[in-house]
Design a protein that fits this description.
single chain, 68 residues, mainly alpha, 1 helix, 34% helix
Length: 68
């Protein structure tokens, strides 16, 4: 109509797994993994500190729920 050529047809976009996360249904999930090691020797100092803080916060929450 205006004398311009139409744009060339493009194929489907390349699959990007970050845009389409894996399905979380039981059929497609990997299932329970191996039990985590109880040995903290491989954990970093920061991870141990965070785990300790989380345990303390959870203990305080349980205590507060029991008091209310």
């Amino acid at each position: 109509m205006t004398g311009e050529d139409p744009a060339p047809a493009q194929g489907p976009p390349e699959f990007n797994p970050l845009r389409y996360p894996p399905c979380a249904c039981p059929r497609h999930s990997p299932g329970p993994g191996p039990e985590p090691d109880k040995d903290d020797a491989g954990d970093s100092a920061l991870l141990r500190e965070l785990r300790t803080r989380m345990n303390e916060e959870n203990r305080l929450r349980r205590w507060a729920r029991g008091q209310s």
